[in-house]
């Protein structure tokens, strides 16, 4: 079997990426620390689905733990690594910047060093559109993203440049995929779409930072998973590639669609815009099309419909999930 080490396997994007790999016949070695940044029951829900596959093996390990990772490398014939393990969230990174550096940057270094030690050359790193703060849109990969405005973005930039160093020194084939506002079924409860659906359905006022005209290049998680696997399967040398919906949508448009699919109206509380947030994101996906043969297939309307349907089918479970 073609064995892939996939970190963050119980996470939102990691889960879907694992599913895509398994469907393509890969053997997936999943790693996740199942931390409590949000309710671990969501991670266990995803993990239980993955454990139904005989070619999925799971280790509860933190990528900050170099020696525990070394055991995994020793015990498995790993052909390549996809690193989706990360501390996510712009606002929380301002409250606790140390854990973002230790996981996102140092954890990436641990993986790269073990790859060097065990002779593994293919590496895919998940990065973020948050790096493009202050740059002209649509965001292109060659923009000088040297001034990150949150510890989260800074920690991801550190991971990117460390991966380049290992490409330069040791010939690693590295593909960095910069994700743009990923959403979908069984998503992260710290992100707006999960929160808005839950709040509107339960009759709780929703909180919007800003006036709702801020826009995001929302990207459905299944599209992101496919793009990530294509990045793994494509030899690039060292490339940074945007994976985004290629069509920004305002937050108030998202809220209106959720209201329509739930058949309920939202009560909105507006708060000041957070200075570490981006007012708009828009991915130029030319490189993804040319290098990976990838572009998003699921439009926002369909992606939100699927996400709301998952919520309805799992309403009792979701009701128990507290929002961080």
Entry summary:
The chain has 324 residues and is of the alpha/beta class. The protein has twelve helices and 13 strands.
Account of the 3D structure:
There is one protein chain. The chain has 324 residues and is α/β, with parallel strands linked by helices. It has a domain at 2-179 and 221-244 and 283-297: 3-Layer(aba) Sandwich (Rossmann fold). Helix content is 44%, strand content 18%. It has twelve helices and 13 strands. The strands form four sheets. A seven-stranded parallel sheet has the order 3-2-1-4-5-6-11, sandwiched between helices. The chain has a two-stranded parallel ribbon with strand order 7-10. A two-stranded parallel ribbon has the order 8-13. Strand 5 (122-128), helix 6 and strand 6 form a beta-alpha-beta unit. Helix 1 packs parallel to helix 2 (40-50) and helix 9 (251-262) packs across helix 11. The longest helix has 22 residues, at 97-118. The radius of gyration is 19 Å and the shape is globular. The termini are far apart. The model has no long low-confidence stretch (mean pLDDT 95). Keywords: NAD. InterPro entries: NAD(P)-bd_dom, NAD(P)-bd_dom_sf. It comes from Thermovibrio guaymasensis. Residues 5-307 form the NAD(P)-binding domain. This is Nucleoside-diphosphate-sugar epimerase.
Nearest-angstrom radius of gyration? Answer: 19 Å
Quaternary state of this entry equals: single chain
Order of SSEs: EHEHEHEHHEHEEHEEEHEEHEHHH
What CATH architecture label of the domain at 2-179 and 221-244 and 283-297 applies?
3-Layer(aba) Sandwich
Label the structural class.
alpha/beta
Largest sheet: 7 strands, parallel
Distance between the termini: 39 Å
- The CATH superfamily of the domain at 2-179 and 221-244 and 283-297 bears the name NAD(P)-binding Rossmann-like Domain
CATH class of the domain at 2-179 and 221-244 and 283-297: Alpha Beta
**What would the average pLDDT be, to the nearest integer?**
95
The rough form would be described as globular
**Share in helix:** 40-55%
Poorly predicted runs are: none
User: If you consult CATH, what is the topology of the domain at 2-179 and 221-244 and 283-297?
Assistant: Rossmann fold
Q: Care to count the β-strands? A: 13
- β-strand amount: 15-25%
The number of helices is 12
Strand order of the largest sheet: 3-2-1-4-5-6-11
């Amino acid at each position: 079997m073609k064995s892939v080490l996939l970190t963050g396997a119980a996470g939102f994007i990691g889960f879907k990426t694992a599913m895509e790999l398994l469907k393509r016949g890969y053997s997936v070695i999943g790693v996740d620390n199942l931390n409590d940044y949000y309710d671990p029951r969501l991670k266990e829900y995803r993990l239980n689905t993955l454990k139904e596959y005989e070619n999925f093996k799971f280790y509860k390990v933190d990528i900050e733990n170099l020696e525990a990772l070394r055991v995994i490398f020793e015990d498995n014939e790993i052909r390549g690594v996809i690193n989706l393990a990360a501390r996510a969230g712009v606002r929380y990174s301002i409250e606790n910047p140390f854990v973002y550096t230790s996981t996102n940057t140092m954890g990436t270094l641990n993986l790269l060093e073990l790859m060097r030690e065990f002779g593994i050359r293919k590496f895919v790193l998940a990065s973020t559109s948050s790096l493009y703060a202050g740059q002209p849109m649509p965001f292109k990969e060659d923009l000088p993203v040297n001034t990150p405005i949150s510890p989260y973005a800074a920690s991801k930039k550190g991971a990117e440049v460390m991966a380049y160093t290992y490409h330069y020194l040791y010939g690693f084939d590295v593909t960095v995929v910069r994700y743009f506002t990923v959403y979908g079924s069984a998503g992260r409860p710290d992100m707006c779409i999960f929160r808005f659906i839950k709040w509107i359905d339960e009759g709780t006022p929703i909180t919007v930072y800003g006036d709702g005209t801020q826009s995001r290049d929302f990207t459905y998680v299944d599209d992101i998973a496919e793009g990530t696997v294509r990045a793994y399967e494509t030899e690039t040398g060292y490339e940074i590639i945007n994976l985004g919906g290629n069509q920004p949508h305002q937050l108030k448009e998202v809220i209106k669609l959720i209201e329509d699919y739930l058949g309920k109206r939202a009560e909105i509380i507006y708060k000041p815009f957070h200075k570490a947030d981006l007012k708009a994101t828009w991915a130029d996906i030319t490189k993804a099309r040319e290098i990976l043969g990838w572009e998003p297939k699921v439009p926002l309307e369909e992606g939100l419909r699927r996400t709301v349907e998952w919520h309805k089918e799992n309403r009792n479970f979701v009701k128990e999930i507290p929002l961080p």
